[in-house]
Design brief:
343 residues, alpha/beta, 8-stranded mixed beta sheet, 42% helix, 16% strand, binds NADPH dihydro-nicotinamide-adenine-dinucleotide phosphate, binds ligand LBM42IJL
Length: 343
């Protein structure tokens, strides 16, 4: 490989990825939707070079073993990455650049919702309102979280769900779109993302109680900005919502016995709102769907939703990302640049 995008000799030597193998990196790959995505990607393309980027190597090892049981010959690498730590992202990016000479797909899936609180009064009120379907689909007005500062002095939710991922993109730029090829970025966002939860004056949601919603809205805007800045260079960014999925994240909202108790109700609700995808496999539908799409055919302003019908059929639907204020994506892009340049 010659030219601007050439990798250092030792990395080419190390790189086990011949030209036709896709290199896919997934953050938060050891559980839930991330792990289900890996399973689905290996089923789709057995030649993949899959890199599980996780903060806990024991859990990462377990995930790799589970994947290898059903895909014996799969090529699965592990990478230590705590997206909530600037130093960890920088070290991991160095490691990725030493191992591979390109990234075809970067799935930015790791995410947290710490100390969630359900507003039970609002839930009961909502049950008897005309807004009930929207309430179940978006949890609007139902959920708050308590955030804290991490060791970098950043709010933990924004650092994990947004800044760490953005820093990773910036650091991996030399591996994105090498030699005129296209590269793809896919964010696991949420239908809980709401414009009113985000303020450019409080870019980390330090003073609010909905950092999760705010950070997911910010990731939608950042994806939009990436498309505006980078599509012409062959870099395409998309956002998805997996629907409501039973994972460690949701088990952190209510105790598991409660979820088990209301499971029949959840199946019933699915008849009215196809956003209750419930299983990680179903939730990974839009992530998998994007993998097999031609990037030029995608809408840069869309959010792709994993949906499951009452009869259990999975499909992907595109909806416009909600209410973009003019210039907000660019402003956010610049602010995030400032953050990552603080390193
Ligand atoms: N479940 C749902 O209903 C919905 C989920 N989502 C989004 O889907 C994504 C996946 O979540 P889900 O599968 O549900 O939940 P899980 O908790 O099962 O998965 C989250 C993954 O992210 C990893 N992670 C968390 N923090 C970090 C970090 N600092 N560095 C590296 N990895 C980290 C976790 O690792 P570890 O095991 O070490 O904690 C885990 O692998 C999240 O972005 C979430 O916001 C969006 C909409 C709905
Ligand atoms: C289903 C019944 C009878 C009770 C559960 C009520 C809430 C706990 C539940 C209703 C809508 C859910 C929801 C989420 C969490 C749990 C609810 C608030 C999410 C916020 C989980 C994470 C996401 O990113 C969203 C897409 C979910 C939206 C719906």
């Amino acid at each position: 490989r010659i030219g601007r995008w050439a990798a250092p000799v030792e990395s080419l030597h190390n790189c086990p990825c011949p030209d036709m193998e896709k290199v896919v990196l997934v953050t938060g790959a050891n559980s839930g939707i991330g792990l289900a995505l890996c399973e689905r990607l290996l089923t789709e393309d057995s030649q993949l070079l899959l890199c599980l980027a996780c903060r806990n190597m024991k859990r990462a090892e377990d995930a790799r073993s589970a994947l290898l049981t059903s895909h014996i010959n799969a090529h699965i690498d592990l990478l230590h990455l705590d997206v909530g730590s600037v130093q960890s992202v920088l070290t991991a990016a160095q490691e990725v650049k030493a191992r591979y000479n390109r990234i075809d797909f970067l799935y930015l899936n790791a995410g947290i919702m710490p100390n969630p609180q359900v507003d039970v009064k609002a839930l009961f009120k909502g049950l008897f309102s005309r807004n009930v379907i929207n309430m179940f689909a978006t949890a609007e007005g139902l959920l708050t979280q308590q955030d804290r500062l991490n060791s970098d002095g950043l709010q933990e939710v924004f650092a994990t769900n947004l800044f760490g991922h953005f820093l990773l993109i910036r650091e991996l730029e030399p591996l994105l779109c090498p030699g005129g090829q296209t590269s793809r970025i896919v964010w696991t966002s949420s239908s809980n993302a709401r414009r009113s939860a985000f303020s450019i004056e409080d870019i980390q949601h330090r003073n609010g109680t909905e950092p999760y919603s705010s950070s997911k809205y910010a990731s939608d805007m950042l994806s939009l900005a990436l498309n505006r800045h980078k599509n012409s260079q062959g870099l395409f960014s998309s956002v998805i919502c997996p629907g409501l999925v039973m994972t460690n994240l949701t088990y952190g909202i209510l105790p598991s016995f409660f979820w088990t108790l209301i499971m029949p109700i959840m199946w019933l609700i699915r008849i009215f709102t196809n956003t209750f995808t419930l299983t990680p496999y179903n939730g990974a539908e839009a992530l998998h769907w994007l993998f097999v799409q031609n990037p030029e055919s995608l809408d840069p302003r869309a959010k792709y939703h994993s949906l499951t019908s009452g009869l259990g059929k999975n499909y992907t639907q595109s909806r416009q990302v909600s209410n973009q204020r003019p210039l907000l994506p660019q402003t956010l892009y610049c602010s995030s640049l400032l953050y990552v340049n603080l390193r």
